[in-house]
Specification:
alpha+beta, 4-stranded antiparallel β-sheet, 4 strands, 6% strand
Length: 380
Amino acid sequence: IEQSEVQNEIASVALEPGGVIVKSITGLIDLVCAFVQLVGLAGIMLFIEPLWTLGFLAASLPIMAAGGLLSLARHRLRLKHAETRRWSRYYGRHLTNHKLVPSVQVLGLADLLIGRDSERHVELHLARRKIDRIELGVKVTTMTFAISIMLMAIHSVIVHAVQGTIEFYNFLAFWGAAWRLAKDSPKVATSFSAASKAWLAIDHFHRFLNLRQPKESRSRQFSDSPQGEIVINQISFRYPKSHRDALCDVSLRIAPGETIAIVGHNGAGKTTLAKLIAGLYRPTAGEILYDGISHSLIDFQRFHRRMAFVFQQPLQFEATARENIALGDWDRLAEAPEEVERLAAELGVAEMISDLPEGFETRLGRMFGQHDLSGGQWQK
């Protein structure tokens, strides 16, 4: 999830896949209906004037092909500029998020961020305008060609009618069919373009759903009564696309009940080591043993239920004070309000919570909440 490529995949996927699926089905139905109608009209025209009608139908094919190709071009443009859209959202967040705005304001960065955000919007606009110009040129060219062929066909039928080689009602039938065919041909192209665009979006959504962590075939293990011994054997770890190891050949043994502190300079790999021990990352070399079981065999879902991890940035849920505590062990504490209050008292936050407008039932946060806490209070 931390890799830029994966973030681009997430940013590119349709936010409303249900709507895309409906569009694909609607586009397909419209395409079939329009095609059936065109076949009927073409049958009338072929019966009356085969040669020019075939030419007109051949001229209609580039219109439909162009629609599909332009849909593909727009889809690729969306994928190509996924990171640009992410940058735009990043700048927007720094200009609107209540936790980030004070720093932006104090440092006088608003104009800089707005300028950079504008550059991203201009980049997207120019790319879209290029596609729009190509689409306009292709549509004008293909439609002009198709209309020219149709006019030639109509002229041929008029000549035959004047010469008396075609009956008047056939002339009227050909004229009506040609007029409807010219009117409905763009509908086929539009329906084809909409359906192909929707199917491309569905394909991208399908690829997004298939993003998976590499699976290991061996069975998972974890003791229901862990002793707590952790042995690290010569592990190394390198972040994707990095040219050097964040950790190299680290060995360590933590005995059950032992308390240790990992100390080092900034960037030495302390947080990385903690995340490796917690199973959030997998070492690129070496092995971590939990009560003698290798990390490659550990059932980390069960492991995480027996582990506490306090991150440097406290997680802030838009929920009540009671729920923010209970979320740490939701299965056990969701329906145990007295236990939540006991834990709050034991950890020294009960008094702080009692001072909130509605005590434990005060909804915390800025997005939907009634009250926000200071950084230190959130950490508690």
